[in-house]
Design goal:
This protein has one domain (about 5-100): Rossmann fold, CATH 3.40.50. The chain has four helices and four strands, in the order βαβαβααβ. It has helices spanning about 15-35, 55-65, 75-80, 85-95; strands at about 5-10, 40-45, 70-75, 100.
């Protein structure tokens, strides 16, 4: 399934969830379509950007189970605003042969 991807979107508060999660999903789906990728799953979180989410371990497990090695995010701040946490999560993915791909810089 090398042409398949999963998407991760995150906002910090419930108030942001309705509008901003949708915009992130649309952007990631458009990026996938533009790059001939098929979206298999979308993971959504409402959690502070400064918290390290164990969710990424679960997402990585699901990706491995599905034979997918690319996770699209809007930008690195959707993973975390803490640079150390971003590095740790990115390294965890790379160690497993998977990649987090931010669609914007």
């Amino acid at each position: 399934m090398s042409n398949s991807v999963m998407i991760y979107v995150r906002v910090g508060t419930q108030e942001q969830a309705e509008e901003k999660l949708g915009k992130q999903i649309v952007g990631c789906k458009q990026f996938a379509e533009d790059n001939d990728k098929r979206v298999i799953a979308v993971f959504k979180d409402v959690i502070s950007a400064n918290q390290r989410s164990d969710r990424f371990e679960n997402i990585l497990d699901e990706m491995k189970n599905q034979g997918i090695n690319e996770l699209l995010v809007q930008n690195w701040s959707r993973v975390s605003r803490n640079t150390k946490i971003v590095y740790e999560i990115d390294q965890m993915f790379r160690d497993q042969g998977s990649f987090i791909i931010p669609i914007e810089q």
